[in-house]
Amino acid sequence: MKMLFVLAALAFGAASAQADPVINDPKAAKQLLGKHALTLQWIGTGGLKDAGRAEVKQENGEWRLTGRNDAKEGFVSLDGVVTKIDQTTFTFKGKIVTKVYHIFEGKECTREGEVTFERKGARKYWRMYPVENPCDAVADYIDIFLR
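The structure corresponding to this sequence follows.
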């Protein structure tokens, strides 16, 4: 019985630990590592002029993605891990917080879980999907730009 408990505990620990992402495209993975511009269309001009910063770095066996963009209208922040990388998409699991003065009565809106960032066509950025804000009837365009 004791051995069964130890094996169950080991299996649970292994399943709950984060690991490097599944990399289906090494070129895309190389492109994702490093510092990038981060925007949310509601704050600043929504363009690179007022962009914040996001960074993907390898840390303790994970690919950590953190970022923040602050402006007088509000902010967006990201904190989590990249779990999968494909040619035009990557999967992020973590916490995303937005706050915009005219959305959700100016309160913070928190998303937790898994989302996909995707590059479509000739775009020079990955856009977060789904775009629907879970706290108000608007679409948030959270974009991470290629270096």
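The chain is about 15% helix and 50% strand.
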